Amino acid sequence: MYRGIGLLSGRRTMSRKVGLRANSSQFTLEGEPFRILGGSIHYFRVPRAYWRDRMMKMRACGINTLTTYVPWSLHEPARGVFQFQTDLDLEAYINLAADLGLWVILCPGPYSSSELDLGGLPSWLLRDGNMRLRTTYPGFIEAVNTFFDKLIPKMVPLQFKKGGPIIAVQLESKYGSFKGDDSYMPFIKEAIVSRGISELLLTSDTPQGLQAGGVTGALRAVNLRKLNQGNIEYLNAVQPNSPVMVMEYWTGWFDVWGDLHHVLAPEDMVSSVREMLRRGMSINLYMFHGGTSFGFQSGALANPSYKALITSYDYDAPLSEAGEYTPKYHLLRELFSRYHIEKLPDMPALRWREAYEPAIMYHHLSLWDALSFTEDPFKSPTPVNMENLPVNNGNGQSYGYALYETTITSGGLLKSEDHVRDRALVFVDRHYIGIFKHQSLELAVPDGKGKRILSLLVENCGRVQNGKALDNQRKGLVGDIFLNNVPLRDFTIYSLEMKTSFVDSLYLAPWKSLPHIPSFPGFFMGRLFTYGYPSDTFVKLPGWGKGVFFVNGLNLGRYWSIGPQQTLYLPGPFLNSGVNQVIMFEEQEADYKVHFEDVPDLGMAVDIQ
User: Fold this and answer.
1) I need a labelling partner for 376 at 20 to 30 A (CA). Which of 51, 172, 212, 424 fits?
2) Same domain for 506 and 468
3) Segments forming the whole domain that contains residue 457
4) pLDDT (tens digit, 9 = 90+) per residue, 72-114?
5) The pTM is what?
6) pLDDT digits over 387-417, tens only?
7) DSSP state for residue 264 in the 8-state scheme
8) Around Cβ 414, how many Cβ atoms within 10 Å?
9) Gap between the Cα atoms of 276 and 222, Å rounded
10) Pair 288, 319: CB distance under 8 Å
11) 97, 155 in Cβ contact below 8 A?
């Protein structure tokens, strides 16, 4: 029997000399046998107002260790500009975990994967045309050092031996499957240790990447969904006489637009966890609670073809996107209770969810009328990708859309040559003529008289989050577009990153009243009324096509009628009591009404194979 979570709180002020140790067959913490019963919750995917609720539900399930990634892209959105406030206050998050009796495993990156745009790396790195991410390329190393100079000193006082809850630190993430530089992992280890990290170090890889992704002095942990004897034997051969740690046991899976919602049967999940515990392993559930990739956080997959990830990060995890208990949660709680001496804490009460009255969209603003509220357009003889646009104080554009306009004098065949990243609506004199995406590379331009304006509204649907394609994730137009085999020239380029400041500025725009016939793409405005303390709700959008949803200036995320996701999670803390402003950017079709329901709809489910 191992130390229960009831003994964790109150240890912060005690003298600590020996942290988490990986001995021949088991972990010890302060010299006592210890088994990690961990779970991942990403602070950046959960409203800060709900951090405590999610952690208390974690403790009540019998979990003793909280694991989180640290998204570099969110903490340093522009080079040298750091954000560690409000929902990104990592120190507050870790201190709260300690207050609630949870240990912490920190995964500071610099790369996280975790289905984030560019795997959590900031897009401004790609302004360097020679950039080689996740290597010892000087430009990458310099940027990592600057970020770690800011991040790691904040984490040092929160380590176990200094009275804090951090018992282990993961170096990078799944480098064995990427590996392109033998010097890289030693550099990451040195970068973290030299800045004062002295707790147990570990790496995390699939069985195939265990050998290549490891580094001397760090315990190799494995990521998997199904336990088989071959994996265990291989791990023991790679790392003999060490405790086995499953750093990512995948409780579900992520979803991509245009596919089905992936689920893992609760019985299959708990049987795997039960077997791992029976064998004496330590485990971290990825995810215990997935949350939401708010705004434009979601990444994409490259293989076998490009597919963008959805806004929800529910992950079919034991705790749902909105913090609801699932059958997986109850099965795990029953199982984990056997590994604690003390009785588990009571399960916190669930929050009320509300089906609010629909919001009527009563105002409309065309994309073209909104352009005057963007940064000044940029003129260029040739197309320029988002990352290299002269915006954001020399940091380029990270997310959203960019509008490229040029003049044409004839019709004919327009070819993208696969230079559109990732999707472009095409217009002639602001009349829609078709779409470019990864599979469609040609478009007919109708004949016309005189000079006409050709416009391409290009969306970054999400940068690929893993694999060898990372260095090639520039967005917008990444090369020439051809009309009748002649490259187009002399562009006017508008950056439409859709930051909160831009959305707020639209209140001053010349909105038109509906029901006049709106043009697309366009912005739609309405109001959601709540009474008393606002509750969680789910945004349902029948009759809408594809776009972005904003409430009170906050970017809730993308929606797309192709699914699987049919609702967006709207947390109560994002709402005001009374009037709430709803703005939607819609590309192609609108219903003029937004519905709010008290249950989520993540689409038709398919079992994970």
Assistant:
1) 424
2) no
3) 382-489
4) 999 999 999 999 999 999 999 999 999 999 999 999 999 999 9
5) 0.96
6) 999 999 999 999 999 999 999 999 999 999 9
7) -
8) 23
9) 12
10) yes
11) no
Q: Using the 8-state DSSP alphabet, how is residue 507 labeled?
A: G
Distance CA 132, CA 152 (A): 23
Give yes or no: residues 462 and 430 share one domain: yes
CA atoms of 117 and 463, how far apart (whole Å)? 5
| Alpha-carbon span 562 to 24, nearest angstrom | 51
Q: Which of 460, 413, 176, 173 is nearest to 309 (CA)?
A: 460
Asked whether residue 328 is assigned to any structural domain, the reply reads yes
Total domain count, the chain: 3
Q: Which of 456, 489, 522 is the last residue of a domain?
A: 489
Q: In the structure encoding, which two tokens stand for residue 235, read together?
A: 């791990």
225: buried, middle or exposed (CB in 10 Å: 19+, 13-18, 0-12)? Answer: middle
Eight-state DSSP code of residue 410? -
User: Which parts of 440-533 fold into alpha helices (H)?
Assistant: 500-505
Residue at 41 is within a domain: yes
pLDDT digits (tens, 9 = 90+) for 122-157: 999 999 999 999 999 999 999 999 999 999 999 999
Do 161 and 199 meet the contact criterion of CB atoms below 8 Å apart? Answer: yes
Strands 37-41 and 282-289: parallel
Tokens for 441? 């590379």
DSSP 485: T
- Report how far apart, in Å, the C-alpha atoms of 603 and of each of 253, 261, 558 are: 14, 6, 15
